[in-house]
């Protein structure tokens, strides 16, 4: 294609293409860079569709660039604000969008425009078609009667925390998510989520209502909200406006870590608004949703654990304790400051889970602090480096509780409590044996009972939550003989 860019209003159509470096004032013409060479016109147009009508397109394939003209400046601004933190991908390649110096595209006298115009007509026909469907349904009082673009989501059976990032990752498969607010009401985790387009909200509700985020738990119940728009004051882990990166994080609310902010860019695999790009595969049989990559939600999986008791803590102890909430891959107690340690979990979800349950617990006489670390991995010591055995790699440990997908262990994750659940007990072991075993670790045994059916499982109640933490660390995987190793976890029941 020739190098002439679209004529601007002053008729200077021979101005050489400079890559629009200086553009920062809003324009309804957008400049797209680094588009893949094999991309189609329709794919480029689909980036703009969720934000409003696309009125023109110019592809400069030789330069891996394109110009996209929106019907209004407002639509272009919303689009740029949306895609700035969440870099869009075409054919799994990141594409960069900025305002163009051009105020409009004049492409009438340029060659090779037939395909672009045909693609525009097709998309616009489809768009007005879907609007026609929408208005027809509305006229019949059908599924879209009086419905807007805001969904209310209730997460039932919340065994595993569902964060704002996870909701964004799931729902952005159906279109442009503009805002999310999460809250707890009546002991239920809920969210309000606003799409750019009511049609996207409708598709998402149809596809996701009743699905489970994880095997057999975290079931989504979705309805249309009466609200037409959401007002977000703060961008933090509870609420977010993806079109306004300038919002404060709010008092006492930590701002989102850069790693999590980056996650928003990583979780839009294809153009919003194209249902073909739906990476959420739902299985009708199980009613369960598998989200590719949700096990590795972008974000940090390394924890900084501080205020430890250096006399009592060991890498193995941290491995066992944090292993209640996820699979621990590595532990490093700081060589020079042994009150601090790094714990690397299998993924960011497990890291969040461990923080929510263990931060603030008393361990060996001190209140433990757990937060996300700035490190992305725990480094193993180099050959010959002095370490005193403070860094351990557990990535292949047989003691991981969550390596089997759909394991029952996912459903038995509870906060630390004074009552422990014991399992894998051989028949030869008596009540007294177990009471004496726990007393030997310094625990006060308050109550004990075997489960009725057989004596393979039991509950034991200790003097305090701190005692239970110590006993779990000492006795999980304890050899009871007959090739049985004791399994210890926190219980939600009391005796």
Question: What would your notes on this structure say?
Answer:
The chain is α+β, with helices and mostly antiparallel strands and about 500 residues long. It folds into four domains: about 1-140, RRM (RNA recognition motif) domain (Alpha-Beta Plaits), CATH 3.30.70; about 150-290, RRM (RNA recognition motif) domain (Alpha-Beta Plaits, 2-Layer Sandwich), CATH 3.30.70.330; about 300-395, RRM (RNA recognition motif) domain (Alpha-Beta Plaits); about 415-490, RRM (RNA recognition motif) domain (Alpha-Beta Plaits, 2-Layer Sandwich). Helix content is about 25%, strand content about 25%. It has helices at about 40-50, 75-85, 115-140, 165-170, 200-210, 260-265, 315-320, 350-360, 430-440, 465-475, and strands spanning about 30-35, 55-60, 65-70, 90, 95, 95-100, 150-155, 175-185, 190-195, 210-215, 215-225, 240, 280-285, 290, 300-305, 330-335, 340-345, 360-365, 365, 370, 390-395, 420-425, 445-450, 460, 485-490. The strands form seven sheets. A six-stranded antiparallel beta sheet has the order 10-11-7-9-8-12. Strands 20-15-17-16-21 form a five-stranded antiparallel beta sheet, covered by helices on one side. A four-stranded antiparallel beta sheet has the order 2-3-1-6, with helices on one face. The model is unreliable at about 1-25, about 130-145 and about 250-300 (pLDDT under 50).
